Amino acid sequence: MSDIIIAITATAGVLFILLAAIGFLKMPDAYLRMAVTTKASTLGSGLILLAATLFFADSGVTSRVIAIILFLFLTVPVGAHLIARAAYFIGVKLWKGTIIDEMEGKYDLHSHELHSEENKDE
Amino acid sequence: MNLENYISYVLMPLLIFSIVLIFIRFLKGPSMADRVIAIDLLVTCSIGVITFVSITTSQSTFLDIAMIIALIGFLSTVAFAYYLEKRNKNE
């Protein structure tokens, strides 16, 4: 019985990672790729680690796995935000179907400082 | 079919296939940012591979390596983002 639950959890995790990989290959734009991959791959790795917890059923393994999952949940969004910011500054092109670019004209290209409309007038 | 065989012969090849797909984008990637995201994603997939190895060999010590790889992956992402931005600033 527990084997079936472990198999279902691990399969769900692998399918999420597979979806993230397919989306990473097919999406047209660096920013869209980032949006697809960070969420799906974090959930996939979390489910696979959860399967390991169910397999070992040991308090030491459980605490270690919870530490890894918490670490992933904290660091993956931070890393994605840093890469997106760097990509915007080095001028990675947006997809041609993008409707709105709210960052346009609101940052200084040399000092890399963001400012809103009010600060610009002062 | 027991759990070890299911993981070794069904789930592990699917995971390796997704790693191959990510690696194709790593080679194609039009910009440097795509390659950095690909490295980030490869690290996340390798955590899954290590966890599967840990289950099939039933040695929980491998999970420590998964934790260290998650740490190194985050550090490399931050460093790559920092230097991508710096490089453009100096030119």
Structure description:
The complex is a heterodimer of chains A (122) and B (91). Chain A is built from 4 helices and no strands. With 122 residues, chain A is mainly alpha-helical. Chain A has one domain. In chain A, helix 2 runs antiparallel to helix 3. Chain A is elongated, with a radius of gyration of 20 Å. The mean pLDDT of chain A is 86. In chain B, helix 1 runs antiparallel to helix 2 and helix 2 packs antiparallel against helix 3. Chain B has one domain. The mean pLDDT of chain B is 89. Chain B is flat and about 55 Å long. Chain B is 89% helix and 0% strand. The termini of chain B are far apart. Chain B has 91 residues and is mainly α. Chain B is built from 3 helices and no strands. At the A-B interface, helix 1, helix 2 and helix 3 of A face helix 1, helix 2 and helix 3 of B.
Main pleated-sheet profile of chain A: none
Q: In angstroms, what separates the terminal alpha carbons of chain A?
A: 68 Å
- Biggest beta sheet attributes of chain B: none
| Structural class by helix and strand composition of chain A | mainly alpha
Largest interface: A-B, 56 and 50 residues
> What is the number of helices of chain A?
4
Q: What's the total count of β strands of chain B?
A: 0
The fraction of residues assigned to DSSP E strands of chain B is: under 5%
